[in-house]
Amino acid sequence: MDLVYIVKESDKNEDLRYSLRSVAKFLPNNKVWIVGYKPSWVRNVKYLPVKQNNGSKWKNSIKNIEAACKCKEISEEFVLMNDDFFAIKPIKDLKKSIDLSVGTLDVSIKKYSHMPKSNWNSAFQYVYDLLKDLNIEEPYYDYEVHAPLRINKEKYLEVMNLPKVQEFMKTSKVLHKRTLYRNIDKINPTIISSDVKLKPEKDDTKIKYKVCDWLSVYDEQVGNGYFKDLNYLLSYLFSNPCKYEDLKSAKKQIITFNRSLIPVKKSHDFIHY
Question: What angle do CA 17, 22, 24 make, to 5 degrees?
């Protein structure tokens, strides 16, 4: 399956740099696509440009995925990647490593109902109601894990073109498209204990490392000296530039990253493979 990144419009994207290094190391035989915007330093990928002018990052990402599904050159099933997804362990069976869920959707609704309201939190109830309106059989699972998801091009477009989905898209509400799509195109999910995205203000890399084969971050965590375990891990695993980078930009970046941001450690106490 092809690996398809949906990428925002910015040349400064160290998350993408380390994500590409991670797939070059642990998924070296999969074709890589950039859909949306391709930073000037990226090399040796297939590129599908899509204008990022759809009003919000949520709408932009949906348009990017739709463009990928309509591209005949991309494999009929592909792996949806975000620029902040890092493979952190050898992946022997890609299909078993993706399509992750943190459990049933009703549990996530209850979890976020006690937190401050946000478009993202409210979207869990919206997608539950939408699945109900579409007469999709329960149980529903929460697939908003910050890790790769398998997409069948034909089925995804079919889901997104459903009249009730098109009607929903006219609102300003956030659509949890991963959860919507995967609950309609049903599979047996791989349940994990928690999402693999680091906490925004706490370096819990050692805890997240144990969950599965993937790790994800917030903006500005890569290269931030506060997140020492994260940056130590990335430096340990991916210090060398990969085939997807311009070597001049990679060399300049590595010097800064290693000398000033990586703490000295005596053991690799959370790396066991």
Answer: 95
